[in-house]
């Protein structure tokens, strides 16, 4: 296990280097001139040249690449061009709000979808199964924006159960007051596709020979499902959760905008609108690292869920 972990971490280095080179090339080749953006519309050529010199943009590309690599290694991305705030401080102050919203989304999505899909698979072909499949199909065809608008109108304005917008410095207040509505809407949106997908995983396992053997040995349906089917279906389920986790992180960006949550996602979207390169570059690289670590964690969980899995 340790050798596999070290090997995978080592393999991340060239992958991350490729991401870094791609990000550098995209911003260098296709992005606007940062000096012109920072100087503003009324700046003189001398002012633009001074900013370009200050940022090192008058240096050759390989020198600028060295600066970029140094920023990644030292975690020092400099200051935001739009606000003057250091990127490290921006991440440190905005990330907790993002995690406060994203963590309940991720946990509830997994905890609700798996047992629901397992329960539906057990009654395959029944009226309950058919009704649930129709409901999930209809839910899938509705845009997420409709969920947000209807949810805010119904639960916020009409029923008054949750505030539509707001945030505080207290984690408990946020979790009990401001987070429930966005989490509820995201879980409602994500539950339908996850339930349908996990149901198909369970149904695939139910058609395997070992299930017929287990039933022939006299095992109860509960034992067959929870001891055999669930265990074997967890491999593709973990794969799907691992692939979806970065998407949930990015999806929380939109939630932060809709509900005015002062998280990292809203800051990133503002950075994109402002062409705030340091913030965008740091977010891109960190998301790439996060995705690779999630993939590694998913592979390790395969071994935990099913000891027969051999990590090579």
From TrEMBL:
<dbReference type="InterPro" id="IPR045621">
    <property type="entry name" value="BPD_transp_1_N"/>
</dbReference>
<keyword id="KW-0472">Membrane</keyword>
<feature type="transmembrane region" description="Helical">
    <location>
        <begin position="237"/>
        <end position="259"/>
    </location>
</feature>
<comment type="similarity">
    <text>Belongs to the binding-protein-dependent transport system permease family.</text>
</comment>
<feature type="domain" description="ABC transmembrane type-1">
    <location>
        <begin position="95"/>
        <end position="298"/>
    </location>
</feature>
<protein>
    <submittedName>
        <fullName>Peptide ABC transporter permease</fullName>
    </submittedName>
</protein>
<dbReference type="GO" id="GO:0005886">
    <property type="term" value="C:plasma membrane"/>
</dbReference>
<dbReference type="GO" id="GO:0055085">
    <property type="term" value="P:transmembrane transport"/>
</dbReference>
<dbReference type="Pfam" id="PF00528">
    <property type="entry name" value="BPD_transp_1"/>
</dbReference>
<dbReference type="InterPro" id="IPR000515">
    <property type="entry name" value="MetI-like"/>
</dbReference>
<keyword id="KW-0813">Transport</keyword>
<feature type="transmembrane region" description="Helical">
    <location>
        <begin position="175"/>
        <end position="192"/>
    </location>
</feature>
<feature type="transmembrane region" description="Helical">
    <location>
        <begin position="99"/>
        <end position="119"/>
    </location>
</feature>
<keyword id="KW-1133">Transmembrane helix</keyword>
<keyword id="KW-0812">Transmembrane</keyword>
<dbReference type="Pfam" id="PF19300">
    <property type="entry name" value="BPD_transp_1_N"/>
</dbReference>
<feature type="transmembrane region" description="Helical">
    <location>
        <begin position="279"/>
        <end position="302"/>
    </location>
</feature>
<keyword id="KW-1003">Cell membrane</keyword>
<dbReference type="InterPro" id="IPR035906">
    <property type="entry name" value="MetI-like_sf"/>
</dbReference>
<feature type="transmembrane region" description="Helical">
    <location>
        <begin position="131"/>
        <end position="155"/>
    </location>
</feature>
